[in-house]
Amino acid sequence: GPTLPSAMHRCEVSLGVDRVCGRWGFGSALMNRALAWARSETSLRFVDLKVFGHNEPARALYQRCGFRETGRIEEAFVMQDGTVIDDIVMLLSLSRPKSAP
User: What pLDDT does residue 95 have?
Assistant: First the structure.
C-alpha cells in the first residue's frame, strides 16, 4: 500500500492466476480473501487495482466484486513482439464514513 500518511486510507491489490488454472475459482477465492482483509482494516476506505485491458475474465471478476473502472493507461506495456497492452485502473469503495480532521 501507500507510504504517505495522507494516502493510508487506500490499499492496492494485485493477484494473478496461471492460465492453466483459469476458471477453477482460484481468482475468486484470492480476491474474496483479500477483500475480507481490506474490510477488516477499519482505516481503509478504498481498494485499487490495475488489470490488463485484454483480460476480460479478470475484469469481469473484479466487476462482480464491486470494482468499477476509473481510468485507462494507454500503452502501459509494449511487449517484445510489438503487442501493446493498456492497463485498466479499477476502484472499490468500502463505503466507510470519512474521518473527522
Answer: 81
Cα–Cα distance between 68 and 92 in angstroms, integer?
Answer: 7
Beta pairing, strands 68-78 & 84-93: antiparallel
CA 93 to chain centre: 11
Kindly state the cell numbers that stand for 34: 483479500
CB atoms closer than 10 angstroms to residue 60: 10
Closest CA to 95 of 47, 29, 33: 47
Question: Which pLDDT belongs to residue 3?
Answer: 81
Name the helix (H) or strand (E) containing 35: helix 26-40
